[in-house]
Amino acid sequence: MKKPTLMQQSTVKLADIDARSRLRPVSEAGVESLIASIRETGVMKDAIHVRKKKDGSLVLIAGAHRLEAAKRLGWEEIEAKVWTDVTDDWARLMEIDDNLAGAEMNALDTAVFLAERKKVYERLHPETKYATGAALAAKRWDATEPSSVAFVTATAEKFGLTDRQVRKIVAAGGKLGAGEVHQLRQAPRPVTLKDLTEIARISDPTERHDVVGRMAAGQCKSAAEARRSLKSGVETPVKDPVAAEFKALLAAWSRARPAARAQFVDDEYGAIAAVMARVAKGRGEAA
């Protein structure tokens, strides 16, 4: 089998890039931050990565946020590194590792990405799937396999975790269905690893469905609380996290001295400008 080859780095048309089948949707905050940076500096720092398939079509490997930012800025072309002789699994690994190495990942996305990497790894190394006991642990995260070692080590260091905790995240993410992931992404309160571990323990499909649904609707603060409320039949009122954060920001702003406020605006000008533009656009549409 041929190794993936970097064919060229050049500009490609946005309209020619297929960006479907991604592991997670782009973050609105991430795209806005990129747009603010590009407007301030005049450049996009890194090229995206695409694969050129045998039929000549271009498929995105890494850089979904950069691609979306370019679209919103009205660009017709974007700088891209074009790869050939790329398999689906290699492309997925690159997408996963690119996000884990550089993106701001919440617990849910981290679990989904790590679980997917484990699946890809086992497809590339099928002999690891049928081992048991100590041999299973040794083979699935083979110390002689550089990409596996780099992956586990980098992830553990980034999140302040141990190898055992990384495996725990993989286990939690591996038990989530696509529908459950979609629902949990709608939850107003960030889903924690503790929540995912709790959900993974639920064997009854009906209870699992109800717990995920309550979290997605913001009816419970945690998966454990959702399970307790289902058993007791009593729902615990949950405060709106956005309202609570707004009050905290307003209180901090009110207490801050004028010099501190000025420094804050100066340091966060790009992000503030992006939010103001979005709010102004929303008001214009409402009018």
Automatic annotation (TrEMBL):
<dbReference type="InterPro" id="IPR050336">
    <property type="entry name" value="Chromosome_partition/occlusion"/>
</dbReference>
<dbReference type="GO" id="GO:0005694">
    <property type="term" value="C:chromosome"/>
</dbReference>
<dbReference type="GO" id="GO:0007059">
    <property type="term" value="P:chromosome segregation"/>
</dbReference>
<protein>
    <submittedName>
        <fullName>ParB N-terminal domain-containing protein</fullName>
    </submittedName>
</protein>
<feature type="domain" description="ParB-like N-terminal">
    <location>
        <begin position="10"/>
        <end position="100"/>
    </location>
</feature>
<dbReference type="InterPro" id="IPR036086">
    <property type="entry name" value="ParB/Sulfiredoxin_sf"/>
</dbReference>
<dbReference type="InterPro" id="IPR003115">
    <property type="entry name" value="ParB_N"/>
</dbReference>
<dbReference type="Pfam" id="PF02195">
    <property type="entry name" value="ParB_N"/>
</dbReference>
